[in-house]
Specification:
The protein is built from 3 helices and 4 strands; from the N terminus they run βαβββαα. With 107 residues, the chain is α+β, with helices and mostly antiparallel strands. The chain binds zinc ion.
Length: 107
């Protein structure tokens, strides 16, 4: 554990920024849909995601890759991870499962 006041060297990890024509190595949300993921857990995870701190804003809202709804224009963070504002929508409305590592982290 770091001492109080000691600088903490923890890189913020990007979480689920979706595949683009320019970067094919990023995940495609359609591949992560897990219809068996329990609704109560999804609500809880989405609530956590929706309460992140604003880390940055972009011009124009992004569109959901699965239903094309307008899905936020900001990045949120909890100090460890960085995710797009609309990630909670993918979790709640499309059953997009997040990495186990992240779920362990927020538990
Ligand atoms: Zn959607």
């Amino acid at each position: 554990m770091p001492e109080l006041g000691e600088p903490v060297d923890r890189p913020v990890r990007l979480l689920d920024f979706w595949v683009t024509p320019e970067n094919q190595t990023l995940p495609n949300p359609a591949d992560l849909v897990d219809p068996g993921w329990e609704e109560s857990e999804r609500y809880w995870v989405a609530d956590y995601l929706n309460h992140g701190l604003v880390a940055g804003s972009w011009m124009g809202a992004s569109r959901c890759r699965l239903c094309s709804c307008s899905n936020g224009s900001r990045d949120l963070t909890d100090g460890y991870y960085l995710w797009p504002e609309g990630l909670g929508h993918y979790v709640l409305d499309h059953d997009v499962r997040l990495p186990a590592e992240f779920l362990d982290h927020i538990e």
